[in-house]
Amino acid sequence: MQLSKKQNEYIVNATHRWNIKSGAVRSGKSFVDTAFVIPFRIRERAGKPGLNVILGVSKSSIERNVLQPMREIYTDKLIGQINSQNIARICGEEVYCLGAEKVSQVAKIQGASIKYCYGDEIAKWNKEVFQMLKSRLDKPYSCFDGSCNPEHPTHWLKEFLDNDELDIYLQRYTIFDNPFLPAEFVEQLCKEYEGTIYYDRLILGLWKRAEGAIYKRFADNPEKFRCEVLDELEEKPQYKQFKKNDIVSIEIGLDFGGNQSGHSFVARGYTDDYRDVIGLMSRRIMAKDTDADIDSNMLDQLFCDFLQDVIDQYGVIVKHGDYVEYCNVESVYYDNAETVLGNSIRNAVEKRFPWMIVRKAKKASIIDRIRCTVRLMGAGRFWITEDCKSLQTAFSDAVWNKDVKDKDERLDDGSTDIDSLDAFEYTIEREMRDLIEEV
After folding, report:
1. 227 touches 387 (CB < 8 A)
2. What confidence tens digit (pLDDT) does each residue in 301-350 have?
3. How many Cβ atoms from other residues are within 10 Å of residue 128's Cβ?
4. Do the beta carbons of residue 381 and residue 222 sit within 8 Å?
5. 274: which DSSP letter?
6. What Gene3D superfamilies does the record point to (predicted)?
7. Which domains does the chain have, with CATH numbers?
8. Is the pTM for the entire model greater than 0.70?
9. Are strands 51-56 and 18-23 parallel, antiparallel or unpaired?
10. Contact, 251 vs 357, CB < 8 A?
11. Residues near 369 by Cβ (< 8 Å), separated by ≥ 6?
12. Average pLDDT, the chain
């Protein structure tokens, strides 16, 4: 088992009550823990009073980030599965494995004495969970190991790490501290995050505030992301080209606007294996731009007309005898906050386009949606046609909310088109993990 210079430094110096690694993704922070630190700490305290605990964002993230990597090294004979009591047997000892996103999830250990705790993705925890943990490490031999990626500089964890009066060993990582990563992988990852807040945090490992343009690379040069979808490719194209038959999946996002915003429709296409993500067509309907108030019947009509335009422009027709199917126009995802409008849209779409599936949007974390889109843009996997003028404007104008100090938040005060961004993100949020893996 080969370790980097940085990882060996951690093993030697992590002798404090709190031992935390903060820094870039894929920099080797977690590997030294799963390969050496966690088994060593647990075995070192075997037979002593107190609980062993692993805390992560969720039990599934603990399995993915901690237990499975340990199992690959030590086999399932030493690294067990999490049972119905939230306990996994590790190196012959019982270890509680609990999600730290909500206080209620760790109630089972509230009041218990903890001899060892490992923390995964600490900056994503609920602050109250961390506060509770501090009072539970009450043995002379109690200690904590953990790792995190940086967030904003006023984050509660950053304030804890900056407290010189506490017994803390803090080790900082950049992506360049991992000598085992292929150089081309590091180069590509840097390229994906270049010019964004995520470069400072996830490449350089800095606690930086989110400010300015969110999609800076796009805002600086939207033409670089322009593409055309054609029946046949041209010999000397001005823009990136795709054949219509290459678009294997078209889905439509719909975000309902309020009094100060508009209803936004966005059609998104995928090429095979999620390789390319294409904004095919977008439209924003503002009440002030119509001659009458937009009621549910008018909205149904406008949206179905938009679907027909998408089908006419980008749909691939397959005939089965007398039956015609547009095989690549598949689903609609609508804003689940508006149940009545959503039900009306579903009924209208199913009546006019009976093969199409209409579902509520998942509405995943906005930050996760932003980060996925930023990486797609940086990796050269995101494209937009001339039929997406409202979506292009939305990406160009999107900025961070500078008035919010304690979290990263997209500005949503009516001055920018958040609705079109939401509508687009509804079409990719269910495949974000696959999209990022493909990137």
Report:
1. no
2. 999 999 999 999 998 776 656 655 666 888 999 998 888 999 999 999 99
3. 13
4. no
5. G
6. 3.30.420.280, P-loop containing nucleotide triphosphate hydrolases
7. 5-182 (3.40.50.300), 216-438 (3.30.420.280)
8. yes
9. unpaired
10. no
11. 425, 428, 429, 432
12. 92
